[in-house]
Amino acid sequence: MEAAELGLFMISACLFSVLLGYAGSPVWRAVPDPFVRRLLGGLAMAATALAIIYSRWGKRSGAHMNPALTLIFLRLKKVEAPDAFFYVLAQFLGGIGGVAIWSLLLGMAVSDRVVRFAATQPGPSGWKEAFVAEAIISFFLALTVLSLSNSRKFSRCTPIFAAALIASYITFESPISGMSMNPARSLGSALFANSFEGLWLYFVAPPLGMLLAAELFVAVRSERAVHCAKFHHNNSEPCIFRCTYGELMTVQATTSRKQGTTS
Fold first, then answer.
1. In the chain, how many domains are there?
2. pLDDT digits (tens, 9 = 90+) for 205-247
3. Do 228 and 212 contact (CB within 8 A), yes or no?
4. Which of 118, 153, 173, 238 is 20 to 30 A from residue 106's alpha carbon, by CA?
5. Structural domain boundaries, residue 34
């Protein structure tokens, strides 16, 4: 499921990169403003992420789709080490597989020098700025996910807020670093684009930023405040993680009853 989810995400990334970045695309000709094209691309990828998270497979696997995200849940003791290993392996295979499918279907369009298989690369400012930017956006994504998914009031909103960040990052941050936050996503594109310049930073900055967010969350709330490793847990799908989500909901129900009694 994790492999298929990131594979579908990469299929979408390649498709919209062609539609919005390939000079032969009617969408590219109709929308000449690069900022508007980035905005459309951000909305498209946010919608893709939401569709995957809310799918049955996304509800079942937790929809990590990102080795850096799986790593922080391993650090927070919500994922067993063998599960984390195979999640990461599946994510890398899925990222490569998704790009491979579009390399066969779109041919020259997706390999165009501008599209380049939706590869993430440092912008004109250079790798230092790209590294810092990747670490920062990864930090805030992870902190948002941890804060909301472990909130009785806002846990159901976690996917929506995460998707909003994806859309915002693609729109505003992508000129700096290419907006990856995901080593598996970047490797999949780099292999087919034969573009390995700066690839290392997508293996270092996102995990670093997310781990810093996890440490901050633990320092403020404690490890016990992390209840599960799923984006969307309020569903009937079984959970494979070290899950205490029911505990979170029990506290919510108890609090609601007490408030009702008081009023």
1. 1
2. 999 999 999 999 999 999 999 999 999 888 889 999 998 988 8
3. no
4. 173
5. 2-250
